[in-house]
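note to self — DONT lose this again. spent like an hour looking for the file last time. sequence + predicted structure for the chain T wanted, 395 res
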Amino acid sequence: MKKTSVATRKKSAISAQHDRIALVLQGGGALGAYQAGVYQQLSSSGYQLDWVAGVSIGAINAALIAGNLPERRLERLSEFWHLVSSGMGPLSDTASAPHKLNGGLEIPGPRTAFNQFSALWSAMLGIPGFYKPRIPPAVLQPDGSPGAISIYDTAPLRATLEQLIDFDLINSKKVRLSMGAVNVCSGNSEYFDNFDRTIGPEHIMASGALPPAFPPVMIDGQPYWDGGIVSNTPLQYVLDMRGDDSLMAFQVDLFSARGKLPVNLAEVQQRQKDILYSSRTRYNSNMAAEVANARKAICDLLVKLPQHMKDDPAVQHLTKVARAAPVDIVQLIYRQASWELESKDYEFSRVSVLEHWQAGQRDMRDTIAHPDWLKSSGLHDGVTQYDLTRHTRPL
């Protein structure tokens, strides 16, 4: 009873401080189970989302949330992640735990080998309900066909989405859904948003059509690839489209910008992928904070002008465009285990999916319980960033 009371009070406080609450989901393949864990903890803590935005696997998770009633969302997320992690059968649940020497020193070799084997399995045989290898392979397909420009067939994903998502509910606009993709021919980023178009399975698939693995998806006569090619996070889109609304954005990233110096080629590949997909996220967050806080400073300065200057049309225009409601950006960043290498985003074993899910729950729980949680929220009209789970993953 006490826990429910606390959640209710938090929900009321959030509603009073923010016009909109958004969940912003990055791309990252198998690591997307971390986002599902974040959502599970978030939903149990009394926070009610009215906007979900995603790219790639983030778009799939976002659609599973927006495309189901609140009481069905966790069930549908669980169904999806159970399906895609079932490819190895019994082996998927039997990863070897890392051995430890006296003093707790990890020897991650056995688990690393299992993860690499699982990733190889996914690459060779595909993922149930997600994708399957093309037969015949791309090199034997006629030029210009979908089979000639992709390694896998994503027809299983369409069937999965149609089974697990209520598209009528998405298009009723009860929850805003935004998904990033990139036009193959123009190279421009584009967002599919249920507030300005009717959303179908093809829009979700386009957001996750990462080449050369997956074929482009045709929408209104135009081919689209994975939005992560241009930007792996939809944060900037959410900030640009919020209008005059105050906003709390839970930004869930699947790659950490910070990491150690690689010691071998496998770690080089892993580090390169982390930097490639995390750097723009950090840049967007910092730039959003800098721009919003500069606008706040301009507003503060304009207030101090004498009245005759405030009546000047140029000053009135500047006052209007500089005004902005406060934004709180809550960062949740997946920090990998010692045995994970560059294959972590296409390693779909059941044990890894469950670990990622539990890590998301833990990080969201620790964030809400942190003494600095929303400590400065509502104190000014700029952007406040929170990253309250900076600890190294305790594994």
